[in-house]
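in:
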């Protein structure tokens, strides 16, 4: 992988990113396009479940405008500077990197190509070390963050597409599937979150039409909403939501006990 930076020079970060990626056995993108479908909660809880299953696990929060992984997991430590880069803080056995560790809740007015630059910077400078799984929480939309991380991780990655049963969420998830397909990115399955148990599942229909696997539905769990989003590892893992997600990850072929 080699590319030119926007000023026409060789991008020094490419070699660093290649080095980081060589240390990851698998990169799991949690995407879906639509905001509010629970991607961050699924990504954070999936990382905890994978870590609990004796996997070396990292979590990269790429929601640059509304990062929430640190809030969900109760992370407030800053990354440590080391010779090899920035060492992310760890919680529940998961190494967590997010722009919120630097912004501390302040908004980041990023647009267009600036988002691509931040994604590459985070990938290049974060020293996760050797991981069995790097879970990536992608932001709403199908813009620069998704396209950049998809392009960078295509050789070692797979995506879970998250949707709800609403027609709007389904339509956005369909666009994400089409984009990932156009980039030859592996889709390991579709998950319907916050399910009310409808017999005629639009998410199953979407998966069938797109030729990808339906991993099933995660029932609506009001416990996830308690406390304004701040949960921490123990509370997240004790929910009905987490138990259901564990089954979906196992069905997707991930190393989950």
């Amino acid at each position: 992988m080699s590319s030119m930076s926007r000023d026409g020079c060789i991008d020094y970060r490419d070699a660093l990113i290649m080095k980081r990626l060589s240390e990851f056995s698998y990169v799991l993108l949690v995407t879906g396009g639509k905001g509010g479908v629970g991607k961050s909660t699924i990504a954070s809880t999936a990382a905890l479940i994978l870590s609990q299953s004796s996997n070396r696990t990292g979590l990269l929060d790429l929601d640059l405008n509304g990062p929430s992984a640190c809030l969900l997991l109760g992370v407030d430590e800053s990354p440590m500077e080391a010779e090899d880069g920035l060492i992310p803080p760890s919680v529940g056995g998961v190494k967590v990197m997010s722009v919120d560790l630097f912004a501390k809740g302040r908004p980041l007015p990023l647009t267009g190509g600036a988002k691509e630059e931040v994604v590459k910077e985070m990938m290049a400078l974060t020293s996760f070390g050797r991981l069995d799984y790097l879970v990536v929480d992608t932001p709403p939309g199908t813009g620069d963050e998704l396209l950049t991380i998809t392009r960078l991780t295509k050789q070692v990655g797979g995506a879970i597409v998250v949707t709800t049963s609403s027609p709007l969420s389904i339509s956005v998830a369909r666009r994400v599937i089409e984009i990932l397909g156009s980039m030859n990115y592996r889709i390991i399955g579709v998950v319907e979150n916050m399910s009310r148990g409808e017999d005629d599942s639009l998410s199953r229909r979407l998966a069938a039409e797109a030729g990808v696997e339906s991993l099933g539905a995660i029932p609506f769990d009001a416990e996830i909403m308690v406390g304004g989003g701040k949960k921490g590892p123990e509370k997240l893992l004790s929910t009905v939501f987490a138990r259901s997600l564990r089954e979906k990850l196992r069905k997707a072929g991930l190393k989950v006990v």
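note: The radius of gyration is 17 Å.
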